[in-house]
C-alpha cells in the first residue's frame, strides 16, 4: 500500500484540474512578484539615497528582468503542454491523458510548483535586502534555485514533446534566458554587497568630533595588535623554515648564523661496486 503511486489515489478529473490550477497559480505568483518588486522600487526611492539607492535599484531591476523571463517561460511551457496533450491523447479526454501519464503529470506539477516557489522566495529575499534585514547570500541562493527549477520544468516538458516542436525550441530559449537573468541577479547582488560594505566601513561623514577621536584610537589599537601578530607570525615562519631545512638535511649553521646548503660528498670517497664473480 505504501509503494502505490500517490496519483492512484487521485481521480482523473482531479489530476487534470491540478495541472491547470498549478500552472495558473504559478502565473499568479509571478505576476504578484512583479507587482511587489515595483512597490519595493518606489519605496527604496523614497527611503534611501546615494549608494544604497543605486545598489537597491540595480538589484531590483535585475530581479524584475528575471521575473519577466520566468513569466515568458511559464507561458511557453503552458502552450507546449497543451500541444503535448492534443497530439498524444487521441480519442481520450484531457483528464484521461493526464491520468494515463500520471508520473509525467506529477513531474510537471512538481516543476511548476518549484518555479513559483522560487519566484516568491526571491521577492521576499529582495524585500529583506532592501530593508537591510536580510542577507545578500539569500538572493544568490534563490537565483540558483530558480535556475534549477527551470531546468526541471524544461526536462519534464521535453519528455513528451516532439523534437521538432517550435514550442519546445521556444521553451529551451526561455530557459537559457532565465539562466542568464538569474546570473545577472547574482552579479548585481555581489557587486552591490561589496559597494555597501566598502561605504559602511569608510563613511565618517555623520560622526562628531568625539566619535571620530574614539574611532581613531580604536583603529590605532587594532593596527598595533595586527603588527604584533604579524611580527609573531614572521618569527614562527622563520623557525618553521629552519626546522624544515634541518629535517631535510640541507641546513648548516655558520658562525654568522646564516644558513647555507650542506656540502656535497666528495667523489673520491665513493667506492666502486665489487665486480660480479664468475660462476
UniProtKB/TrEMBL annotation:
Location of region: Disordered: 250-279
CC terms in the record's Gene Ontology section: clathrin-coated vesicle; cortical actin cytoskeleton
Keyword Lipid metabolism recorded: no
PROSITE patterns the UniProt entry points to: I_LWEQ (PS50945)
Recorded coiled-coil stretches: 207-243
Superkingdom, natural source: Eukaryota
GO BP field: actin filament organization; clathrin coat assembly; endocytosis
Subcellular location: Cytoplasm
GO molecular function, one term: clathrin light chain binding
Residues covered by the I/LWEQ domain: 7-248
Pfam families, A to Z: I_LWEQ
Principal location class: cytoplasm
Swiss-Prot/TrEMBL keywords: Coiled coil, Cytoplasm
PANTHER family reported in the protein's UniProt record: HUNTINGTIN INTERACTING PROTEIN 1, HUNTINGTIN-INTERACTING PROTEIN 1-RELATED PROTEIN
Name of the protein described by the UniProt record: HIP1R protein
UniProt source species: Psilopogon haemacephalus (coppersmith barbet)
Amino acid at each position: 500500500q505504501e509503494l502505490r503511486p500517490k496519483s492512484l489515489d487521485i481521480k482523473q478529473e482531479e489530476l487534470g484540474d491540478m495541472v491547470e490550477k498549478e500552472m495558473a497559480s504559478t502565473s499568479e505568483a509571478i505576476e504578484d512578484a512583479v507587482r511587489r518588486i515595483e512597490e519595493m522600487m518606489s519605496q527604496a526611492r523614497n527611503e534611501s539615497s546615494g549608494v544604497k539607492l543605486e545598489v537597491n535599484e540595480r538589484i531590483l531591476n535585475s530581479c524584475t528582468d528575471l521575473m519577466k523571463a520566468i513569466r515568458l517561460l511559464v507561458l511557453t511551457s503552458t502552450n507546449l503542454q497543451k500541444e503535448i496533450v492534443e497530439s498524444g491523447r487521441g480519442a481520450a479526454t484531457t483528464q484521461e491523458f493526464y491520468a494515463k501519464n500520471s508520473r509525467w503529470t506529477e513531474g510537471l506539477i512538481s516543476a511548476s510548483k518549484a518555479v513559483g516557489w522560487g519566484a516568491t522566495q526571491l521577492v521576499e529575499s529582495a524585500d529583506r535586502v532592501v530593508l537591510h534585514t536580510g542577507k545578500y547570500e539569500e538572493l544568490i541562493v534563490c537565483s540558483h534555485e530558480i535556475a534549477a527549477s527551470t531546468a526541471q520544468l524544461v526536462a519534464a516538458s521535453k519528455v513528451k514533446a516532439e523534437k521538432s516542436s517550435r514550442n519546445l525550441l521556444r521553451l529551451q530559449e526561455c530557459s537559457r534566458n532565465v539562466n542568464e537573468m538569474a546570473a545577472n541577479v547574482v552579479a548585481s547582488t555581489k557587486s552591490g554587497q561589496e559597494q555597501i560594505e566598502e561605504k559602511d566601513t569608510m563613511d565618517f561623514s555623520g560622526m562628531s568630533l568625539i566619535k571620530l577621536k574614539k574611532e581613531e584610537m580604536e583603529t590605532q589599537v587594532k593596527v598595533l595588535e595586527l603588527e604584533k601578530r604579524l611580527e609573531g607570525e614572521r618569527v614562527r615562519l622563520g623557525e618553521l623554515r629552519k626546522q624544515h631545512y634541518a629535517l631535510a638535511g640541507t641546513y648548516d649553521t655558520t658562525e654568522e648564523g646564516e644558513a647555507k646548503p650542506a656540502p656535497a660528498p666528495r667523489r673520491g670517497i665513493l667506492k666502486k661496486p665489487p665486480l660480479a664473480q664468475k660462476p
